[in-house]
Amino acid sequence: MGWPRARSQVLKRNDKVHLSGVERTFPENDIIVSKTDLKGNLTYANKIFIDISGYTEKELIGQPHSILRNPQMPRVMFKVLWCMLQSGSEIFAYVVNRCKNGDHYWVYAHATPSFDMKGNIIGYHSNRRVPDRRILEEHIIPLYAKLREEEHRHASAKDGLTASTKMLESMLDDLGMDYDEFIATVGKERHGSRPSGRRRQGYDKETERCVWA
Q1: CA 125, CA 113: separation in Å to the nearest integer?
Q2: Nearest to 86 by CA among 7, 166, 202, 213
Q3: What sign does the dihedral 200-203-208-211 (CA atoms) show?
Q4: Could you tell me the pLDDT band of residue 11, with boundaries at 50, 70 and 90?
Q5: CA 74 to CA 63: how far, in whole Å?
Q6: Cβ burial, residue 197 (10 Å; 0-12/13-18/19+)
Q7: Which residues pair with 94 in a beta bridge?
């Protein structure tokens, strides 16, 4: 496993949370399930979620999903995730979460908006499975390290996020694919070159427009 296993991580800015360096895993047939409201506050967590997180159900329900946020996740990935969900689209993503005691666990997440009868988004639903270890080691962990390094290279968090967004956009441009296609094919053999400019847009709360890409 390429993830750092030092007992304490030296993190920058607001990343000063305890990380044990210990990775937790869960059985391949298990599925972690959670639901949130529009603000990302947890409204449901299944037993597998509760067990691996180390929190009790009482401690989780009503709390923001970011209670599990691991500072080793580049912030741009959450930007992409929320942009896609708020635009009404599903998204797949590799995510590392932090347990209550500072341990961590990787998931391959599928998140979707939940709609009412009129088509309005009323919340979000996510299923998470065990990720492919080879893809994590060879592609995702190195990519996230580069994005995180770019974010930390700037004095302000805003500038760092802008820079990592541009880095991700540039990578997708070079590949000639949008995020969906990238995440569906990462670690798999790709054939031929693709035209650039196929990236799907995201969603900006202030302008209520899709803009991220």
Answers
A1: 6
A2: 202
A3: negative
A4: very low
A5: 21
A6: exposed
A7: 108
* SS3 label, residue 174: helix
Nearest-10 crossing angle of helices 157-175, 141-152: 140
Extract the tokens encoding 32.
């972690």
Query: Which residue(s) pair with 45 in the sheet?
Result: 34
Pick from 67, 66, 71: nearest CA to 3: 71
Distance, in Å, from the CA atom of 72 to the CA atom of 134, rounded to the nearest integer, reads 19
Which residues have C-beta within 8 Å of that of residue 37, sequence separation ≥ 6?
A: 43, 122, 123
Contact assessment for residue 61 and residue 39, using Cβ atoms and an 8 Å cutoff? no
Q: Where are the beta strands (DSSP E) in 2-152?
A: 32-36, 42-45, 91-98, 104-115, 121-129
Mind listing the pLDDT tens digit for each residue in 39-64?
999 999 999 999 999 999 999 999 99
Structure tokens at 35: 């639901």
- The first and second tokens of residue 23, run together, are 């990775």
What span, in angstroms and rounded, lies between the C-alpha atoms of 87 and 173?
A: 21
Residue with tokens 């009503």: 62
pTM, full prediction = 0.84
Query: 201: which 2 tokens?
Result: 């847009």
User: pLDDT tens digits, residue range 121-179?
Assistant: 999 999 999 999 999 999 999 999 999 999 999 999 999 999 999 999 999 999 998 89
The percent of residues above 90 in pLDDT, for the chain, comes to 77
Amino acid at 94: Y
* Least confident piece of the model among 84-88, 136-140, 195-199: 195-199
